[in-house]
Amino acid sequence: MSIKLVIFDMAGTTVKDENKVTETFKAALQQFGYLVPDHAINPLMGYKKSLAIKKMLQQFEGDTEKITEELILAIHTEFIRLMIGYYKSTHALEALPNAESTMNILRNAGIKVGINTGFSRDIAEIIIDRLKWREKGLFDYLIGSDEVAEGRPDPSMIHHIMEQAGITDSGDVAKVGDTEVDVREGQNAGCRFIIAVTTGAFTRVELEPFNPTHIIDDIADVLDIID
């Protein structure tokens, strides 16, 4: 395998979502008087969550002067509170099929595994802890979107993990995700492989226009692609 680092997204890529992120966005926004339908939220999956909220407000708030940083922060804070409460208590939290075995095979082959996410680090840590991915030794690096100045599609999270791994050539990196911004993030970073999976927010037809190097239905296919 010539790839030295594979970076995976979380919800919809390695972690089962069942539309809970969309539901939580809706609930948080509704508390501030905004009724946002699923079809307006789903395309924003994968974005830094505060940016996703700003984009939704730009669609559904007619008075642009009301779209303040304070409002975005308040909605985002509520989103985090609801999301943490869900992940702490739900019995439905589980890895997607073949996600854990794929990461395990990569690490056993000497490939570094990174996880990046549009979630803030506190949410990501709860997911990691409950799935016991540290105890299982499934990944090397983890970063949340609040740990960089710009979230996806900016490549900062990928660059940060590359720096931690001591990798300077993005041609040694593969990015795996389920959304438009996962694909664009990988393209902006110059990753050799940008692998889109159909297990999350976007279908194959919806992913094709963004031109990932590969589209797969089973995350285990990552192993064949990078071999």
Secondary structure elements and pairings:
Elements: E1 5-8, H1 20-30, H2 38-41, H3 49-60, H4 69-89, H5 99-108, E2 112-117, H6 121-131, E3 141-144, H7 156-165, E4 173-177, H8 180-189, E5 193-197, H9 204-207, E6 214-216, H10 221-226
Helix pairs in contact: 1-4, 3-4, 4-6
What is the gist of this entry?
It is built from ten helices and six strands. It is an alpha/beta fold and 227 residues long.
Kindly provide the radius of gyration, computed on alpha-carbon positions and rounded to a whole number of angstroms: 17 Å
Number of domains: 2
Write down the CATH topology of the largest domain.
Answer: Rossmann fold
What order do the strands of the largest sheet run in, or round the barrel if closed?
3-2-1-4-5-6
So, the CATH homologous superfamily of the largest domain? HAD superfamily/HAD-like
Uncertain regions spanning at least 5 consecutive residues: none
Distance between the termini: 5 Å
**Percent of residues in helices:** 40-55%
Shape: globular
Question: What share of residues are in beta strands?
Answer: 5-15%
Mean pLDDT: 96
Biggest sheet record: 6 strands, parallel
Structural class estimated from helices and strands: alpha/beta
* CATH class designation of the largest domain: Alpha Beta
The total beta strand count reads 6
Q: State the CATH architecture of the largest domain.
A: 3-Layer(aba) Sandwich
User: What is the string of helix and strand elements?
Assistant: EHHHHHEHEHEHEHEH
Query: Number of helical segments?
Result: 10
